[in-house]
Design brief:
By secondary structure, the chain is an alpha+beta fold. It is 38% helix and 13% strand. The chain has a 4-stranded antiparallel beta sheet. It has a two-stranded antiparallel ribbon with strand order 5-6. Helix 3 crosses helix 5. The longest helix has 22 residues. The protein starts with a helix and ends in a 6-residue tail after the last helix.
Length: 239
């Protein structure tokens, strides 16, 4: 009987953990309040939503993505993070007029998704003097949050602190996989990008798709369970 109980728990416990993480995953819905705020941000920055043939033109997509990035940076120019346990949806960012990378990236992603793009959230951790496991587990590891957006030519990263997007001088899309493979300083970047960028992924780094926080205090229910999204986590396995 004891062996049977152990076997039952062997199967039940993983199911409970998966269900717990599923229930706690970051909500990706675009709410009506999101739409109102996003409209304000676009209008205040004279951004016209993509339509017609432009929706499938890479250069027009990049111009739009760059404009959205700039609009969010102007909306929250002060580099101060919203408090843990506090909503960091576009409405709050717009009202507070400040935010950190993990706050601005949320707004960028929601604006782009509402505009018809597919996005994925990325957490980046510095590997300076650290192994990947140590960098991930160490609380004070230098880190960054940004977004990637799917264009007609492929995934492009969108920084949340600087005017930097993943496009090289030749008009090729660049995601973090390519940055890690080629090396940031070995890529000839496009005119869209800030010169002399010195962000975390300009050096040795690791990254995780779909992880919004390790501590669980950025999104409801604000507890110790990491903030994540299963649909984006699968990208870590090349899916």
């Amino acid at each position: 009987m004891k062996v049977l109980k152990n076997r039952v728990w062997f199967f039940i416990l993983p199911m409970i953990l998966v269900a717990l993480f599923w229930i706690h995953q970051v909500d990706q819905d675009i709410t009506e309040r999101d739409k109102v705020t996003i409209t304000k941000i676009l209008q205040e920055n004279n951004i016209i939503p993509l339509s017609g043939p432009d929706k499938n033109d890479f250069h027009e997509q990049i111009k739009f993505i760059s404009a959205v990035q700039k609009a969010v940076l102007l909306t929250a120019p002060r580099n101060k993070g919203l408090d843990e346990g506090m909503s960091r949806e576009p409405e709050v960012l717009y009202k507070m007029r400040y935010g950190h990378c993990y706050d601005r990236s949320r707004a960028i992603e929601k604006i782009l998704r509402l505009s018809g793009f597919k996005t994925r959230h990325v957490s980046v951790y510095s590997l300076d003097e650290n192994s990947a496991l140590h960098a991930f587990l160490k609380p004070k590891t230098r880190s960054h949050a940004l977004s990637e957006v799917l264009t007609v030519k492929g995934w492009v990263f969108v920084d949340s602190n600087d005017k930097l997007i993943g496009v090289d001088k030749f008009g090729n899309p660049i995601d973090l996989t390519q940055v890690k493979k080629l090396g940031f300083k070995n890529i000839v970047w496009s005119k869209y990008n800030t010169e002399n960028f010195d962000g975390v992924y300009a050096t040795k780094f690791m990254y995780v798709y779909g992880l919004y926080s390790r501590h669980g205090k950025f999104y409801p229910p604000y507890n110790f369970i990491p903030d994540l999204h299963w649909g984006e986590l699968v990208y870590n396995f090349g899916l």
